[in-house]
């Protein structure tokens, strides 16, 4: 059976925080959750755009400022959410940047690694105490098939200071999203309340690829009607990962079509490198050191 938005269960009484929710995949994800009864927080960098997005949604929707390129902003957003919400049922780590020119975050991290991985790593760690007491709560992190394209964790140059490839840097950040999910699930499993799940949207029509080099954009524009899907369809793997009662922690969802580019959400697998436990744990330790955020769940020994 093909999974569609009609299979989203009612979300009444649940609180969902969605990063990057003022446009694209995040907007569609937040809108569907709100339509199904969730109280949704749009965690966005530009609150004016966030309020415009909220005005277009039906349901209980609020806006919280969050700039993932600034650890100060991440900490402020987490502190504000602790005041306004005593519990969180769903944390959707959706926001991201792709193929940006070489630049750094406010904290000096390479922009793609800092935004896509480190910002969400810190946010999750700072909010996890609001999720852990809630049975059935989930952390859903959005990755990409781009984790397979030159995707590797370059521990000798995590911030790409010696050389820079926007494609490889994106691959590293999206691989990090998956490794974070798998290690987080291992740490959450003993608690039995919260699950960590990953998803990817296939190739969706959003603003994400605006920084792609022209050599990629030109041929892609010719075939995009055949390869891409609307943002509403691209959000379905995230929505399934967040709401399907059959989903298990540590799973990864993406489209069921050719090369997982488009289609209905199904359980998929990530690259062999993404399952390397040693690298997952090393990346976790490096992420803690870089962000200064420690999680309220400890490392679990692997036989």
Unreliable residue runs: 217-223
- Percentage of residues assigned to helices: 25-40%
E-strand count: 8
Mean pLDDT: 93
The shape is globular
The span between the termini is 37 Å
Order of helices and strands: EHEHEHEHEHEHHHEEH
Order of strands in the sheet with most strands:
3-2-1-4-5-6-7-8
Name of the CATH first level = Alpha Beta
Query: Would you tell me the structural class of the helices and strands?
Result: alpha/beta
Q: Do you know the CATH architecture? A: 3-Layer(aba) Sandwich
Could you characterize what this model shows?
The structure is a single chain. With 303 residues, this protein is of the alpha/beta class. It has a single domain (10-291), classed as NAD(P)-binding Rossmann-like Domain (Rossmann fold). The protein contains nine helices and eight strands. It has helices at 24-35, 47-55, 71-84, 111-131, 166-188, 214-227, 231-234, 236-243, 277-291, and strands at residues 15-19, 39-44, 61-65, 90-93, 137-142, 194-199, 252-255, 265-267. It has an eight-stranded mixed sheet, with helices on both faces. Helix 3 runs parallel beside helix 4 (111-131), helix 4 packs across helix 9 and helix 5 crosses helix 9 (277-291). 50% of the residues are buried. Residues 217-223 have low confidence and may be disordered.
């Amino acid at each position: 059976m093909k999974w569609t938005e009609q299979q989203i269960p009612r979300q009444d009484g649940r609180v969902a925080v969605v990063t990057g929710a003022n446009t694209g995949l995040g907007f569609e994800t937040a809108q569907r959750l709100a339509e199904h009864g969730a109280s949704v927080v749009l965690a966005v960098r530009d609150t004016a755009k966030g309020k415009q997005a909220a005005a277009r949604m039906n349901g209980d929707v609020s806006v919280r400022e969050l700039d993932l390129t600034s650890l100060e902003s991440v900490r402020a957003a987490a502190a504000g959410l602790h005041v306004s919400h005593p519990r969180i049922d769903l944390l959707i780590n959706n926001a991201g940047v792709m193929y940006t020119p070489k630049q750094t975050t406010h904290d000096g991290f390479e922009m793609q690694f800092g935004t896509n991985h480190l910002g969400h790593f810190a946010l999750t760690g700072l909010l996890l105490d609001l999720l852990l007491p809630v049975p059935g709560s989930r952390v859903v992190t959005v990755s990409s098939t781009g984790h397979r394209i030159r995707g590797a964790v370059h521990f000798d140059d995590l911030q790409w200071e010696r050389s820079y490839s926007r494609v490889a840097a994106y691959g590293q950040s999206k691989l990090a999203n998956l490794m974070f999910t798998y290690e987080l699930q291992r740490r959450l499993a003993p608690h039995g309340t919260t699950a960590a799940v990953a998803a990817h949207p296939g190739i969706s029509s959003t603003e994400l690829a605006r920084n792609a080099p022209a050599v990629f954009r030109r041929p892609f524009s010719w075939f995009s009607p055949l390869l891409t899907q609307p943002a509403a369809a691209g959000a379905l793997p995230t929505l399934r990962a967040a709401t399907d009662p059959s989903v298990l922690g540590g799973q990864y969802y993406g489209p069921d079509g050719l090369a997982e580019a488009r289609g209905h959400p199904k359980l998929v697998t990530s690259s062999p490198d993404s399952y390397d436990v040693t690298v997952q744990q090393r990346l976790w330790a490096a992420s803690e050191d870089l962000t200064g955020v420690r999680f309220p769940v400890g490392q679990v020994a692997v036989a």
